[in-house]
Amino acid sequence: MKASYVIGNWKLNPATLGDVQALASALTAGTGRCQVGVAPSFVHLSAAKAALSAGIWLGAQDIAHKSTQTGAFTGDVSGAQLADAGAQFVIVGHSERRAYHGESDAVLAQKITHAFASGLSVVFCIGETKDEYQAGKTLDVLAAQLQVVADFASQITADTDGALPKLLIAYEPVWAIGTGLTPTFAEVEAVHRFISETLAAMQVFSPILYGGSVNDTNAETFVKSPLIDGVLVGGASLKADSFARIAAAF
Ligand code: PEP
């Protein structure tokens, strides 16, 4: 049975520690083939870890670009600090980091280097903007973004049963994030096939998740494809019951 992954990106939510504890303690681990993970903000990692059920993976939403575990990098958080707080993975390359913090491919490569050196897995996000989608440039954009992971091929081995993969790719069309819009099932499948072929040519082994306005109604659609190994969920991961229904679908 092929594993699947349902990962919640809490972004800058929830507002209070009490809300974090309530959300984390209400989550249930996946069943069967589905593995579940969540990524709260830095300041909530330890509290989330304490409240989460065993078996739910904990992740951070960012990591410092410099591979130093301590030092003069105001505002940055190192991989060692993340691991010490209980994180097992980190999201790198989310479109909101690319857009609001100008994170370049070079910076993203540094972040992946740092994460791997710290023993953290990486959820690497890629996706085209609305203009790029409308101009028919999606595959060109994704091919360029995927070049970042090519250099890590020798470090990324095939999944072992039940373990968190070292790398997970999340295809997230920027125009689908938080908008309620999604590509068609056929479009997502075609893109996932392209990503899969591109990764295979690089000798990189990674599950491929879809992200962008996934909810407990449309999750059923994405489950149907053997090319979609799971989902990265933003808004709908903030409601424990919706998130549980998405995980149950996988
Ligand atoms: C995301 O930001 O990773 C995301 C997929 O958000 P949403 O599910 O809210 O579109």
Automatic annotation (TrEMBL):
Q: What class of enzyme is it?
A: isomerase
Q: What is its EC number?
A: 5.3.1.1
Q: How does it assemble?
A: Homodimer.
Q: In which pathway does it act?
A: Carbohydrate degradation; glycolysis; D-glyceraldehyde 3-phosphate from glycerone phosphate: step 1/1; Carbohydrate biosynthesis; gluconeogenesis; Carbohydrate metabolism; erythritol degradation
Q: Pfam families, per this entry?
A: TIM
- Reaction(s) catalysed by this chain's protein: D-glyceraldehyde 3-phosphate = dihydroxyacetone phosphate
Name-wise, this protein is Triosephosphate isomerase
Give the classification, highest ranks.
Answer: Bacteria, Pseudomonadati, Pseudomonadota, Gammaproteobacteria, Moraxellales
Q: Name one GO molecular function term.
A: triose-phosphate isomerase activity
Catalytic residues of the enzyme: 94, 172
Q: Relate the protein's function as given in its record.
A: Involved in the gluconeogenesis. Catalyzes stereospecifically the conversion of dihydroxyacetone phosphate (DHAP) to D-glyceraldehyde-3-phosphate (G3P).
In this chain, substrate is annotated as bound at: 9-11, 178, 213, 234-235
Location of this chain's protein in the cell: Cytoplasm
Cellular component aspect of the GO annotation: cytosol
Q: What is its main location?
A: cytoplasm
